[in-house]
Write a structure and sequence with these properties.
Blueprint: H1 7-16, H2 18-39, E1 44-53, H3 62-79, H4 82-96, H5 102-108, E2 109-113, E3 119-126, H6 129-150, E4 155-160, H7 173-202, H8 220-227, E5 231-236, H9 242-254, E6 259-265
Parallel strand pairs: 5-6
Antiparallel strand pairs: 1-3, 1-4, 2-3
Helix pairs in contact: 2-7, 4-6
């Protein structure tokens, strides 16, 4: 028989487990902060702006302007061509001692165009702000030199050189922290209903066993251990490390979990043993 939970009961469950939800939210925030500020490598962006003018005739009209706009796609292809990229690679190496492969330079370059404009930008991304500046400026200069020789171009002007910006474009710190907070909230709410289910189920059965994830990896096992009457650690031969077990014991002790014992899993068979059994693969 299905049990229907009213909206009032939902709010009562959330209110009852508000402490666990708040702890989970801050845990998600802390994890997001750890990843954002200490694990993810910041990336910086720098861009140079150019304008290309095709040869003009006395009878220039709107079609000529449209041709100029359509040629932007051709300029994009030329900028990322091996002709330009190889020269950019050599220049970066000789002038800035910046040793990058052609593939790396290509992946760091982005060519963008303003709508209905003959102006476009060469944007470079790198883990160092000064490197992004060098890549963007070098690419625009090499393109300027090659375009006149390979295409019917009247004039190429670099109207704005790239400058190093010390503000990273990624990761988005505020967004990542917000995501961590929201995920922590979702986990906390989920645990609240799981704990409520646990409390209600206890009244129906004599013994309930929960198979939880590793204690060291996530906080779920700690929270459940603090609510359960007893906890049994499962370790695996030649897999579980001593330092991990020590840390797991400390984490369980922090939440005052009652450790009943240990299951030594996947033990290697010997002559004195009658059978070999392993729980989980």
């Amino acid at each position: 028989m299905e049990e229907i939970i009213s909206l009032k009961e939902i709010f009562e469950i959330l209110k009852k487990h508000v402490t666990s939800i708040i702890i989970s939210m801050f845990a998600g925030l802390a994890l997001a902060g750890l990843i954002t500020f200490f694990i993810i490598t910041p990336k910086y962006s720098s861009q140079a702006q150019l304008i290309v003018t095709l040869p003009q005739t006395e009878n220039a009209n709107a079609n000529d302007v449209n041709t100029n706009l359509q040629m932007i796609n051709t300029y994009k292809d030329l900028i990322t061509s091996d002709l330009v990229m190889n020269q950019v690679k050599d220049t970066l190496d000789s002038e800035y001692d910046l040793k990058l492969s052609v593939e790396t330079i290509k992946s760091s370059i982005e060519v963008t165009q303003s709508q209905n404009s003959q102006m476009f930008s060469i944007k470079a991304n790198s883990t160092k702000a000064i490197d992004a500046e060098h890549i963007a400026n070098t690419t625009s200069q090499v393109f300027q030199e090659n375009a006149k020789d390979t295409m019917a171009v009247d004039k190429i002007s670099i109207i704005s050189k790239a400058t190093a910006s010390m503000t990273p474009v990624s990761p988005n710190n505020k967004l990542n922290l917000a995501i961590g907070l929201i995920l922590g909230l979702m986990v906390g709410v989920g645990l609240a209903f799981l704990l409520e289910l646990f409390d209600r189920t206890v009244n129906l059965y004599d013994i309930i066993i929960f198979d939880m994830p590793p204690v060291v990896a996530v906080t779920d096992a700690q929270i459940m251990a603090s609510k359960a009457d007893g906890t049994i650690l499962v370790i695996r031969e030649n897999v579980s490390r001593k330092e991990s077990l020590t840390k797991a014991k400390k984490l369980l002790h922090m939440v005052q979990a009652k450790v009943l014992g240990v299951v030594y899993n996947c033990a290697e068979n010997t002559k004195d043993q009658g059978y070999y059994y392993c729980y989980g693969n």
